C-alpha cells in the first residue's frame, strides 16, 4: 500500500455533502464555481488521489463519481470530506479574478482614506457571495462582502486589497 499523498500547496476545491443514489455517486459543494470538479482530474480525498470518472452540475452543486467507489455504502462515510488539489494543478483564474483561497493573510486598506483596517483572517460563503472576515489589531472583526462594490481592488503581488466597508445600516 502506498503512503497517503498530500498536495504540497493544497487548495480545497469542494466538500462532499452527501451520497446520491445507489451507485457510489456523491453530491459535492464546490468552493468557487466548480471548474476543478471535472472528469479526468484527481483531487486528493482522505490522503489519496481519486480520479473523477464523471461530473455533472446540478442546482445544488455537483454530482461526482470517483474511481474506486461503486456503491452507496462505500461513499456514505465521506460526508464532510474535503477534495483538494495542489495549487500547481489549478487552472489559472480568468482575467480580473482571483481564487478566494488566496485572500487570507492579505492586508486590508480603506479605499478612500488609505487607513489600515486589518488582515483577512478567513472567508465564508453565503447564498449571495463570499464574505471576508477582516481582523484588526484591536481584535475587532469586520465582515466584508467580496463584491466589486466593497472590494474594488485586489493586488495579490502587493499583498493587499482596497475595501469600501458597508455602512452600519447596510447590514
From TrEMBL:
GO terms for cellular component: cytoplasm; ribosome. It comes from the Bacteria. Transmembrane segments: none annotated. The keyword Cytoplasm applies. An accessory protein needed during the final step in the assembly of 30S ribosomal subunit, possibly for assembly of the head region. Essential for efficient processing of 16S rRNA. May be needed both before and after RbfA during the maturation of 16S rRNA. It has affinity for free ribosomal 30S subunits but not for 70S ribosomes. GO terms for molecular function: ribosome binding. Belongs to the RimM family. One of its GO terms (biological process) is ribosomal small subunit biogenesis. Binds ribosomal protein uS19. This is Ribosome maturation factor RimM. The PRC barrel domain binds ribosomal protein uS19. It comes from Rubrobacter radiotolerans. It is found in: Cytoplasm. HAMAP family: Ribosome_mat_RimM. Residues 12-88 form the RimM N-terminal domain. Keywords: Chaperone, Cytoplasm, Ribosome biogenesis, rRNA processing. Pfam families: PRC_RimM, RimM. Residues 102-167 form the Ribosome maturation factor RimM PRC barrel domain.
Amino acid at each position: 500500500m502506498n503512503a497517503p499523498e498530500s498536495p504540497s500547496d493544497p487548495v480545497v476545491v469542494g466538500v462532499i455533502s452527501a451520497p446520491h443514489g445507489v451507485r457510489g455517486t456523491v453530491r459535492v459543494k464546490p468552493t468557487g464555481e466548480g471548474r476543478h470538479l471535472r472528469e479526468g482530474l484527481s483531487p486528493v480525498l482522505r490522503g489519496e488521489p481519486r480520479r473523477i470518472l464523471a461530473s455533472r452540475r446540478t442546482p445544488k452543486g455537483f454530482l461526482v463519481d470517483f474511481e474506486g467507489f461503486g456503491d452507496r455504502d462505500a461513499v456514505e462515510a465521506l460526508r464532510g470530506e474535503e477534495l483538494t488539489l495542489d495549487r500547481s494543478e489549478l487552472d489559472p483564474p480568468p482575467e480580473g479574478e482571483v481564487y478566494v483561497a488566496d485572500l487570507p493573510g492579505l492586508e486590508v486598506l480603506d479605499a478612500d482614506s488609505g487607513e489600515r483596517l486589518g488582515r483577512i483572517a478567513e472567508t465564508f460563503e453565503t447564498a449571495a457571495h463570499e464574505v471576508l472576515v477582516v481582523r484588526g489589531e484591536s481584535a475587532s472583526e469586520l465582515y466584508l462582502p467580496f463584491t466589486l462594490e466593497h472590494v474594488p481592488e485586489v493586488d495579490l503581488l502587493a499583498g493587499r486589497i482596497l475595501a469600501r466597508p458597508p455602512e452600519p445600516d447596510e447590514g
